[in-house]
Amino acid sequence: MKSLRRALLDWYRVNRRKLPWRTTRDPYAIWISEAMLQQTRVETAIPYYERFLERFPDVRALATAELDDVLAVWAGLGYYSRARNLRAAAQRVVGEFDGELPGDVGSLRSLPGIGRYTAGAIASIAFDRPEPVVDGNVARVLSRLRGIRDDVKKPATIRRLWQEAADLARGPHPGDLNQALMELGATVCTPRAPRCPACPVARHCEAHRDGDAEALPVQSRPAPPRPVEAVAALVLRRGKALAVRRSAGLLAGLWELPGGEYSGSERPSAALRRALRERVGLTVTRPRRAGVVEHAFTHRSLRLHVFRCERPSGRVRLRGFDGHHWLPPDSLCRLPHGALTRKVLDLVLNPPP
Ligand code: SF4
């Protein structure tokens, strides 16, 4: 175990990539980077990280920010619950921990959006606590190193991986050790074609010895994304367009054009009239088709039929939304919105010739 740790640490100190969050020990900055890096590639996260810290340089700045401002800086990164949780957790840190992020895993995990992985990362990297982390990269490296041939999605395998990671973190420099495992997974022990001849821990590695590194980790195939049909419309009244804000779910707090999902047996234009009546209280006649936008979420693949409607009748009554604005169409882009709404706005505001 000692020589394995030493090999990882020596390799990491020479080979680690220069990333902005590796030049700080500020727990707040490390927390922001870890929140962004979940589900996001390093190269994508870097400019967001820099903009976020410039706009909200510490816990108090984030705690007192308007949610719309936080979402606007986050816009484009996806998984918006991360941004909402960051702000909610910052408010708790100010209220309960005097504005200082705690260093122990139990307190960290009591905060919104901080799970086992993020708590371990903050505790070990920012506070040098001997806490493990297991993300996709670490799970792959440990499966190969230890020759774990059980499905990594199974609870017993997950427990085993966390135990292996905990054993490794129980030595000097646990923060660097954890980052070494992650870095090795990202740059050497890659999912396909791992570079075993260049690997600092090859002599400890069971999969390398057995020649089946690429077959590990074993994982059951994820279910294919569920196809979903939906409608949305640019609804115009006296030259202004209706935008609505989601009240719940993954996209809560973000603005979009009104609409909703429907079952495949309905016609899209009929589904749109129904969705507008039920969800925003407006009646429209003769919606005009603007096109179709396709968008992939993690578990769903969406086909969104987009329309333009003018002169709706009725008063706005919201269901499933908690705010609305009538705005000049070209100002819609300034509201915090997700990647799907960006595609929809591109289509209705800049229609193809
Ligand atoms: S020897 Fe190969 S399979 Fe084993 S940890 Fe290193 S890169 Fe991964």
Q: Any idea what the CATH superfamily of the largest domain is called?
A: Hypothetical protein, domain 2
Q: Give the SSE string.
A: HHHHHHHHHHHHEEEEHEEEH
Evaluate the radius of gyration. 24 Å
Strand content: 5-15%
Number of domains: 2
Helix content: 40-55%
The ligands found in this model are: iron/sulfur cluster
Q: Which residue ranges are poorly predicted, with pLDDT under 50 across at least 5 consecutive positions?
A: none
Largest sheet, in brief, is: 7 strands, mixed
The number of distinct helices, counting runs of at least 4 residues, comes to: 14
Under the CATH scheme, which architecture of the largest domain would be assigned?
Orthogonal Bundle
Distance between the termini: 65 Å
**Remind me, CATH topology of the largest domain?**
Endonuclease III, domain 1
What report would you give on this structure?
The chain has 353 residues and is an alpha+beta fold. It folds into two domains: 2-136 and 155-177, Orthogonal Bundle (Endonuclease III, domain 1), CATH 1.10.340.30; 226-349, Alpha-Beta Complex (Nucleoside Triphosphate Pyrophosphohydrolase), CATH 3.90.79.10. 43% of the residues lie in helices and 15% in strands. The chain contains 14 helices and seven strands. It has helices at residues 2-15, 27-37, 42-55, 59-63, 67-74, 81-96, 105-109, 116-127, 136-145, 155-169, 174-187, 206-210, 268-280, 339-349, and strands at 226-237, 240-246, 255-256, 259-262, 288-296, 300-310, 321-327. Strands 1, 2, 3, 4, 5, 6 and 7 form a seven-stranded mixed beta sheet that branches. A hairpin with a 2-residue loop joins strand 1 and strand 2. The chain starts with a helix and ends with a helix. Iron/sulfur cluster (SF4) binds at residues 141, 144-145, 188-189, 194-196, 199, 201-202, 205, 207-208, 213.
